[in-house]
Amino acid sequence: MKLFKTEEEVRIAELESVVRELTKKRREEEAAEILPKRQEAWEKIGALNKERDKIVPELRAVDKEKETTYLKKKSELQTAFDEYRLSHQAIMSTSHNFDIAIGKHETILIETADPEIDTGIQWFQDKLSWLRQPGRAHRDSIKSKVNIFSMTRETLQETNMPAIRLSMQYCQEAIKRLERAKLLPVWDIQILQELKAGLPSIDDYQEIHGEKSLGPPPPDFATIMRPIDDKLLLLDAKFMKWKVGKMGS
Question: What is d(CA 228, CA 233) in angstroms, rounded to the nearest whole number?
């Protein structure tokens, strides 16, 4: 075991002692500097805890009151919804029962309807087929005029297409009315006669003005000159380049 320290070891021990003292002193100074901040933080925590202990119970009391009101309203709303659902179901069920009962009596009326109604329906269906046949529509040109500025041809024609469309719509509506007539207790043949008499004629011609293009319009002057202008610009650029070169030499 070594009994005596060398001079170097003594010097190292003294330095270590000085370092320990300096470190301790620095820590004490830092602790003294930070102590007010820590004290302030601790005091604020205590104040906030005290304020929370006062405010939160008040808010909980209000929350409890609101919860009680909500649960009461929720129960009332659920009761009202259940009553509404039962009422709606009663309406749907009752309406369905009436529809079934009415449908049975309508079936009796339809099955026992006057055969003249079906005859009238067939008459209008035949008319529809006849109107749809090729050749019923006519289009006759009356005159035409060429507009050289817009390169179009203005036409005037006579056609019976609107009259045919009107007749077809009339037949479709007449069939619907005759189907509803089956639900009448008493059939009046005068209804069918008036429907037939009211059928619009397809010989009603109307004039139609139109316009047809004679081909693509001629290009404007600017379009024609654009390639020439591009070439001129290119020549101007070459001339300026040559002129600058001459001036430099």
Answer: 9
Cα–chain center distance at 193: 50
pLDDT per position as a tens digit, 56-99: 998 998 999 999 999 999 999 999 999 999 999 999 999 999 99
pTM score: 0.50
Q: Give a yes or no: residue 229 inside a domain.
A: no
Instruction: Work out the burial of residue 116: count CB atoms within 10 Å of its CB; fewer than 13 is exposed, 13-18 middle, 19 or more buried.
Output: middle
Q: What angle in degrees, to the nearest 10, is found between the helix axes of 189-197 and 115-132? A: 10
Query: Does any domain span residue 239?
Result: no
Pairing of strands 139-147, 206-213: unpaired
Q: How confident is the model at residue 221 (pLDDT cuts 50, 70, 90)?
A: very low
* Nearest-angstrom CA–CA distance, 124 and 144: 38
CA–CA separation, 131 and 122 (whole Å): 14
- 176 and 92 in a single domain? The answer is no
Do 1 and 103 reside in the same domain of the chain?
Answer: yes
Give 127-149 pLDDT, tens digit per residue: 999 999 888 877 666 555 555 55
Does residue 237 belong to any structural domain of this protein?
A: no
Within-domain flag for 64: yes
- For the chain, what is the domain count? 2
Average the pLDDT over 105-132 and give the result.
92
Do 78 and 140 reside in the same domain of the chain? no
Residue 217 has pLDDT above 80, yes or no: no
Domain that holds residue 93: 1-112
